Amino acid sequence: MDLATIIGLVMTLSLLFGAMAMGVGIGPYLDVPSMLIVFGGTTGTLLIGFKMEQIKGLGSYFKIAINPPKEDFLELIRKMVQYSTKARRDGILALENDANNESNEFLKKGLSMAVDGSEPDTIRDLLEIDMDQTASRHKTNASIFDQMGGFAGSMGMIGTLIGLVAMLLNMADPSAIGPAMAVALLTTLYGAMIGNIIGAPIANLLGIRDGDEMLAKTLILEGIMAIQSGDNPRTLEAKLLSFLPPKERESQFN
Amino acid sequence: MDLATIIGLVMTLSLLFGAMAMGVGIGPYLDVPSMLIVFGGTTGTLLIGFKMEQIKGLGSYFKIAINPPKEDFLELIRKMVQYSTKARRDGILALENDANNESNEFLKKGLSMAVDGSEPDTIRDLLEIDMDQTASRHKTNASIFDQMGGFAGSMGMIGTLIGLVAMLLNMADPSAIGPAMAVALLTTLYGAMIGNIIGAPIANLLGIRDGDEMLAKTLILEGIMAIQSGDNPRTLEAKLLSFLPPKERESQFN
Amino acid sequence: MDLATIIGLVMTLSLLFGAMAMGVGIGPYLDVPSMLIVFGGTTGTLLIGFKMEQIKGLGSYFKIAINPPKEDFLELIRKMVQYSTKARRDGILALENDANNESNEFLKKGLSMAVDGSEPDTIRDLLEIDMDQTASRHKTNASIFDQMGGFAGSMGMIGTLIGLVAMLLNMADPSAIGPAMAVALLTTLYGAMIGNIIGAPIANLLGIRDGDEMLAKTLILEGIMAIQSGDNPRTLEAKLLSFLPPKERESQFN
Amino acid sequence: MDLATIIGLVMTLSLLFGAMAMGVGIGPYLDVPSMLIVFGGTTGTLLIGFKMEQIKGLGSYFKIAINPPKEDFLELIRKMVQYSTKARRDGILALENDANNESNEFLKKGLSMAVDGSEPDTIRDLLEIDMDQTASRHKTNASIFDQMGGFAGSMGMIGTLIGLVAMLLNMADPSAIGPAMAVALLTTLYGAMIGNIIGAPIANLLGIRDGDEMLAKTLILEGIMAIQSGDNPRTLEAKLLSFLPPKERESQFN
Amino acid sequence: MDLATIIGLVMTLSLLFGAMAMGVGIGPYLDVPSMLIVFGGTTGTLLIGFKMEQIKGLGSYFKIAINPPKEDFLELIRKMVQYSTKARRDGILALENDANNESNEFLKKGLSMAVDGSEPDTIRDLLEIDMDQTASRHKTNASIFDQMGGFAGSMGMIGTLIGLVAMLLNMADPSAIGPAMAVALLTTLYGAMIGNIIGAPIANLLGIRDGDEMLAKTLILEGIMAIQSGDNPRTLEAKLLSFLPPKERESQFN
């Protein structure tokens, strides 16, 4: 679990609620009708603009964002190099057991195809289709959070306009104007908070998670192609290490 | 029919009208001249910026957005694999009846060409042109909703400016300022509602529908190319399943 | 002539002027200095940012937007198929007269080269350069309207700031504040009208016109390549019809 | 020298200063501290975000924008066709003198390589690297003006916020509020003027100048490749003329 | 060390603090709770949207921005040409010592592979993977500064909304309204300063630094490929000089 997101959420919300508490207290900032407009309206517009199953997945995308599958690229490279060494020494069929016991679905699929003797082009084709489609689904999922931010901002503005119109029609009592306008501004505040504390950052984080997963899949794809064509394990390692930042590169041959 | 969009629309509008009703009532939010400016002005600018036939299609694009042709990718893959099995067993001419009875126009066209013995490159060329042009038309159609949102927002602002100028020239009676400004704000409210409840979400939904249709067409295209070159149906199925998310993949050979 | 643009322009302007008339009358909305700032300033910034000859072409781009050359794609496909049939029956030299009498410059050029026996690669090269350069010029021309919209909005804001500063320095007479601010807002109103009724919609329309012209040129290019290589006219027709929406496809061989 | 930019600058500034003069006079619009914030702050942020040498080049980019090297494409095509004719008649070595006397550096370099007998791929490679790198430098240079506009707008807003805070803390004397707010708005006005009269239009103009230079270089590149491979000068001319708009095409063979 | 950034920072901040001091003094512009909201909230949202290790790298990216590794392209070209001359004269193995003593990691890696007799395609592959991955990491790092700017602006707006609501609920004492609103505006001011003095300019600068590093790596890659294939050093120099602006090109053969 990546604690940064949780720490960031707690930190940001504490500071904002602290600022509210220091002024007029948190109470005046909580207004149920305003919440209904922004939270309900944002949910409503997401329902309009996405498929039900995509909305249902929101929770699991959020979970992936804050608790991503651990990608240890160096460990993965080690594994690919070991498979490569084994295949060169004992033949590719020696990897059959490894393929069956592999927990990473993508690696398992690729290894099995290599063991089964599929054509290199067929393997590359299938794995690349898988990667492209995964990346495309990830992009759509991240876009839900982006759109959520945009829709929340718009609902906030719509709520404020509704409140302003009501306030402007009731200006007989001057002492009521301030509080009425305060309430009208709350939807804008809620919209800005949803958009900037949840929407934009989580969409960004999902993009980073996707980058990590795609890098892992690229390492696997390149590894399997090298295993199948019987490349030298040292050459394979050098190639795979090139995907990592220079200071993280660590060879198992030293 | 995908209920999400209808539910989202009803939910969002109920919340907003509920918020109006709870304050000063819905009546003050309904102003015919303001509606004319925003709805008429948005229609007017769409007429300026698009071809008449594109504007006329708005209703049918909306219908496609909320009631898309059902795409059952797994079912489609099953069908392609069956055709492939049949063609390998009985020859490609055995698919002539299937081609004639096929209701999906794109699949029918591809199958017929394969049965007629067209060159693979010719088939791929024709089907890809069809896909590219369809995607390009879909993009334009979705952009009408996007532009509608932008134009509605602008017309809302223009209406508010017209109202503000009138209000500023009539400040003799202070009690009239509030209501005049309230009315001036209504066009901005209408514009924001059109743009954010209809424009942006429907444009997004049309993009998702287009993605689904393109995926179905890709499955068909890959299937027909494999049928024609006599590929192994299991290999074809493995390839086509790679286009789906891992947990939706279900082989008919197990 | 495509009436949609004219209807849209008349409709939008009527609604806006109607709204002005219903309030304080059209008179107060017409202010010559404000018009000079926005119309003059927009022209001025366009002169800074484009070449004189591009600015001079504004009128003709506008004319193309509202009165585009008629593109009858089906008719064009018919013609290409007829040329193809003739060339297969009587040899490509039989098209010499057709080439000379052709009014479409692009088709004439391509046909003449084919009749003159130019290499297929040379013909494709020349026609593609022509298309690319045309598309690039069209994009620049459409961008003038886009930039016009942006510049008009900015000039509107600059004018309002100038007016606001003047108003703020003259607040001795409270009854003059309202009218002074009203006048200050007029430049913003003018800028928004230019940008959203002319700028953005016409830029969009020019993009659509360009798409139509490019489609026509693609049909011609594909047709000439097929004529030269002696393809079957039915195959050519099938290919060209793939560029059109399914329901517009109509074969002349049925 | 392209007068459009100068005319546009004079026209826009005259109108704006005229509007100021007509109101409260130009004096109140000139405030040295506000100018320092916007002009100094914009320069400062440009220094942060670019390399010193790029900032130093600002003046020369501006000069290129308003006084570009004259590109006479038709004349250039004529020259390429003449070189081509000469090379076919007298051999490519006959161009040695022309290469030495050529003032256009890019053409000189290409011709010299052709005369020296470099491989066609080497020549194309070198000239394309030159073009790509030039285009990339031009894009960065134009982006300085774009960023200048953005930074000026931001500095304007920051200045206004600083002024507003000062004003809000000094509201004891109501008659001072108006003038204080007027001064606060001046930075926003300056920022908008820099961004919209210099920044955006000059960035756009530099993009157009780059397009012209790239077109000239493309004509030279294509010409040299054709000269070296001994293409027919008429074919070369037809190809090069395809880069120009139809009505500017003028053959020297008629 | 590139002094421009430091000069720009000092200059911009001096001007802004000078403007504050000239008005009501710097004191009223410093408000700890407002700072906590903007600085803390920006840090918090960055923590949500990025991985902890990326946030930790912020300081070192900033250092690279203001004190980049010196890239002397002409010197680098000289070195590549010398290596090339040596390899042609004494064989590629003569570069073994140079490879071992090379301080530039990228050049060392490429040279070593060439000396070890790796295949040209393998070398190009590895070096290009390295470049692509480096560019992609650089882009993400620059985006942290961009997002920091956006998040700071949003936190500024959220803080101002919180302050406005508090102010509107406490309008009993009119003399307190001004100062309360002044404080509310401070978060917007802080957000705008972070975004426009640090965020956007540093992101831009990191993009420029990345461009320089990529250019250096491209020169190395092209050089190594030429050394390995035994190209003429003069041809190599001509090619590498094409990457530089014309007036910086300086041949060592003259």
Describe the protein.
Chain A is built from ten helices and no strands. Chain A is mostly helical. Chain A is elongated and about 90 Å long. Chain A starts with a helix and ends in a 13-residue tail after the last helix. The model of chain A has no long low-confidence stretch (mean pLDDT 94). Chains in contact: A-B, A-E, B-C, C-D, D-E. The interface between D and E is large, with 48 and 49 residues.
Average pLDDT across residues of chain A? 94
Fraction in helix of chain A: over 70%
Find the count of extended strands of chain A (DSSP E, 2+ residues).
0
So how many helices of chain A?
10
Element string of chain A (H = helix, E = strand):
HHHHHHHHHH
Give Rg of chain A in angstroms: 26 Å
Large-scale geometry of chain A: elongated
Fraction in beta strands of chain A: under 5%
Summarize the largest interface: chains and residue counts: D-E, 48 and 49 residues
Oligomer: homopentamer
Query: Which regions of chain A contain 5 or more consecutive residues with pLDDT less than 50?
Result: none
Kindly report how far apart the N and C termini of chain A lie: 32 Å
Report the structural category of chain A. Answer: mainly alpha
**Largest sheet features of chain A:** none
Compact summary:
The structure is a homopentamer of 254-residue chains. Helix content of chain A is 79%, strand content 0%. With 254 residues, chain A is mainly α.
